Amino acid sequence: MTALNPAGWRPEMNAGGADDSTTFTGNRALMLEEPLLFEIGSTETTGVDFDEDVAAADLGPLARSAPIGLPGLSESETVRHYTRLSRQNYAIDLGLFPLGSCTMKHNPRLNEKVARMPGFADVHPLQPQETVQGAYAVIHELAEWLVTLTGMHAVAMSPKAGAHGELCGVLCIKAALAARGEDRRVLLVPESAHGTNPATAAFAGFTVEDIPANAEGRVDLAALEERLGPDVAGVMITNPNTCGLFERDLKAISDAVHAAGGYIYCDGANFNAIVGRVRPGDLGVDAMHINLHKTFSTPHGGGGPGSGPVVLSAALAPFAPLPFVTKDGDRFRLIEEENAGEAHPDSFGRMTAFHGQMGMFTRALAYILSHGADGLKQVSEDAVINANYVLRSLEDVLEAPFAASGPCMHEALFSDKGLAEGFSTLDIAKGLIDEGYHPMTVYFPLVVHGAMLIEPTETESKAVLDQFIGALRSIALRAKNGDPALKSAPHFAPRARLDETLAARKPVLRWEG
Ligand SMILES: Cc1ncc(COP(=O)(O)O)c(C=O)c1O
Fold this sequence. Notes:
Layout: H1 37-40, H2 52-56, H3 75-87, H4 109-115, H5 118-121, H6 133-150, E1 154-156, H7 162-179, E2 186-190, H8 196-203, E3 207-211, H9 221-227, E4 232-238, H10 250-259, E5 263-267, E6 287-289, H11 292-295, E7 310-312, E8 324-328, E9 331-335, H12 340-343, H13 358-394, E10 412-414, H14 425-434, E11 441-442, E12 452-454, H15 462-481, H16 500-505
Parallel strand pairs: 2-3, 2-4, 4-5, 5-6
Antiparallel strand pairs: 1-7, 6-7, 8-9, 10-12, 11-12
Helix pairs in contact: 4-13, 6-13, 7-8, 13-15, 14-15
Bound molecules: pyridoxal-5'-phosphate.
The site of pyridoxal-5'-phosphate has 15 residues, from helix 7.
């Protein structure tokens, strides 16, 4: 068939679906094939008409000497292109987003409303301090909540994401060791750790050593104690861990590490499972980042990057980064390099240009205040109940490796054990796309073969969970029974099985016409 080609569609762009037949537009149902801007428009045309006198005006040195090389598109063509692209994205506002470890939860609209108030949305970090006292008050109040909820001594608000917070915490540990005149080079990282933990430790110049997990999926305390010594700077431990389990031995681990002269970094990305119920400070933690975008429902990436405040023990607080907001009487002011001298002389330095992510702070504080301390307790309880509901509803069709270790925390973990010969976790993930769901986290954590990690979060109702469980159950049964159609899923998406390794290793990001 010859296609009419108003939007640059070519027959070979058709992804082929269940029956591989070519359609006129390349679309299937409402999933649109979207060409590149360069394929829609031409570099020879312009989407804008200039008045003749404007076109003829002498722009002097501002006149372009060479073509810009961008396609000229009209406003409607451009708007439609980006709107069509946005429809190819799955979003938390479309349905349950079961990614484990990522905590894709509903972002309450109240938070959005607050964040858009001009007094918060339109402030600039370089404004004179007297003109942004309200913004500083928000930062300070949120900081107080974080310190109280975690039972810690202080908090560094400036880190911009979880991994950035890890770097902040590890740099505090490094500075504290330097202040003691000690050159400890090793950071111990349990094998169930999130990948950012060893990456952060290595980036900060430490040597990373693994600590094995025990049969229950938790840190092997005896192995850890055995490895402690004068070269060990500390331990980076995730609690609840990436197998969705609470590290019951954390206090014993902290005691042992402190006795050996080290520090405890806790990856607090999963704080949403324990907020309001457990205070990491009581368990001996020295530094912990909180992904505001996970625990306190700020959108992932919305309004700029995320936000990863780091709560610190009294031992590490003196080394916290600049700048930060402090309160003098009823006024707020910034502590920066110029005035840190007396108040905060041991800071390891500055990680970011400014003092934090205002858009995330306002959303997080709105979330906290709208729940209150009791509501936050219920948040973690509901997150845990929902995950256990998923775990127990599916453990008869998918192997749950740590089901015998007791209830899970905020995420349910399954393995690929028991699938038919030749079927894998990837087939199940691809099958979920045909059912209209974004897949769960796959092949992580590495300690479980063919891992499938599902985090429903507290914001999903039982009805939504039941529908998801029904879909996943049917796919799991197809994988157990060896349904050949599952091997070529998804059938109803514009793209089916991409070479993900090639895409990651050799991304083609540039259009060459
Ligand atoms: C356990 C854990 N640690 C650290 C991170 C890194 O956080 P961020 O993506 O905000 O850098 C994540 C992110 O998903 C995580 O799940």
